[in-house]
Automatic annotation (TrEMBL):
Gene3D superfamilies: Histone deacetylase domain (3.40.800.20). GO terms for molecular function: histone deacetylase activity. Keywords: Acetoin catabolism. This is Acetoin utilization protein AcuC. Pfam families: Hist_deacetyl. Pathway: Ketone degradation; acetoin degradation. Residues 22-319 form the Histone deacetylase domain. It comes from Halobacillus litoralis. Belongs to the histone deacetylase family. InterPro entries: AcuC, HDACs, His_deacetylse_dom, His_deacetylse_dom_sf, Ureohydrolase_dom_sf. The keyword Thylakoid does not apply.
Length: 390
């Protein structure tokens, strides 16, 4: 399957930066782009220049008062009390100069990706600057100021009148996007994530099903801490195939956080690079089967920017173009350049070594727990199918 895909990028993505020591670091997008270029997989003809989202577009998913608060914060004019009301100025989401414009660009980059796909310029589009799935209508949360996924899906609904399936494989629950469409039967959200018993934001239970007309269109699979590749992929593939067949979307939007890897410092899952080949391959396949190829992929979490994120995100682009993931060694020149800046030894191959981490003593118990959660989710899908056919 040969596809023409578009890569949304700007050097200005790095202006979205809280502090030098903050775990959210958009340098990872620069590193991924340069890795793809060094591997000969990305050229100027593939690039899509992003634009700034307008305030009217931001208001599709955010209140005007909140937008004004973000603008004031970036100008140093927001009081501490006002900031707390809007989740701005917290340890997770501190204030930085120009934060409104930097956030506008990330949202606009997702809108640029959407238009490129929906106008038929490309089959698929990748915006690694996006995927800020924790932002709420009136509040910043979890490193996310504006929620580009929520704005983008509202934009898809209003401008193109399409049914949207949102698939979130970040280790953290995609709460902001879920709640934005909790009562909308034309947007189906599916999040597979580490259970909220141990991890922010603490939501994403199987019984979060939607409200009113949107009941039955929200799906969550909270997997156990220390879940490994085989269990993760079994749950992901089984649920994704059932959900896409139930909902039959016109377009698929995926959020591709790379923080389920065992190196990630903020989560407790134990995956390897194996899942980052399989996740986009299935999305690609199902987009062609159900949506004539319409697929917009976003970035997301990922806090080991040196050893994990560039390798994981580069695979999305490779799969988008020809479905064959990268194999073997990373480009030597890329490794040598970034090793000079990295505080850890970089990986030199696309895959992780087989002995990357010690065996998990509870592996069978964890796998069994995940199977039970999956069974509950699949039963809910089947029940909804029956209800809809009545």
């Amino acid at each position: 399957m040969t596809c023409h895909a578009g890569f949304v990028y700007s050097d200005e993505f790095t202006t979205y930066r809280f502090r030098d020591d903050h775990p959210f670091n958009q340098l990872r997008v620069v590193m991924t782009k340069e890795l793809l270029e060094a591997a000969g997989a990305l050229s100027e003809k593939d690039m899509i220049a992003p634009r700034l989202a307008t305030e009217e577009e931001l208001s599709l998913a955010h209140s005007k008062k909140y937008i004004e608060a973000v603008k004031k914060a970036g100008q140093g004019l927001l009081t501490e009390d006002e900031g707390m009301e809007y989740g701005i100025g917290t340890e997770d989401t501190p204030i930085f100069k120009g934060m409104h414009k930097a956030s506008q660009l990330l949202v606009g980059s997702t809108l640029s990706a959407i238009d490129a796909v929906m106008e038929g310029k490309v089959k698929h589009a990748l915006n690694l600057g996006g995927g800020l799935h924790h932002g709420f209508e009136r509040k910043a949360s979890g490193f996310c100021i504006y929620n580009d996924g929520a704005v983008g899906i509202k934009y898809l609904r209003e401008k193109y009148n399409v049914k949207v399936l949102y698939v979130d494989t970040d280790a953290h629950h995609g709460d902001g996007v879920q709640w934005a469409f909790y009562d909308d039967p034309n947007v189906c959200t599916f999040s597979i994530h580490e259970t909220g018993r141990y991890l922010f934001p603490g939501t994403g239970n199987v019984n979060e099903r939607g409200l009113k007309e949107g009941y039955g269109y929200s799906f969550n699979i909270p997997i156990d801490a220390f879940t490994e590749d085989e269990s993760f992929l079994s749950v992901y593939e089984s649920a994704f195939r059932e959900i896409v067949d139930f909902f039959k979307p016109d377009v698929i939007v995926t959020q591709n956080g790379a923080d389920a890897h065992h190196f990630d410092p903020l989560t407790h899952l134990c995956s390897t690079m194996k899942i980052y080949e399989a996740i986009p391959k299935l999305a690609h396949e199902l987009a062609h089967e159900y949506c004539e190829g319409k697929w917009i992929a976003l970035g997301g979490g990922g806090y080991d920017i040196w050893r994990v994120v560039p390798r994981a995100w580069a695979q999305i682009w490779k799969v988008m173009n020809d479905q064959t993931p990268f194999q073997g060694s990373l480009p030597v020149e890329w490794v040598q350049k970034w090793q000079k800046e990295a505080p850890v030894n970089l990986m030199e191959t696309w895959h992780d070594p087989p002995d990357a981490f010690k065996p998990i003593p509870r592996r069978e118990e964890i796998t069994e727990k995940n199977k039970k959660v999956l069974a509950k989710a699949l039963q809910l899908i089947h029940n909804q199918k029956k209800f809809n056919s009545m």
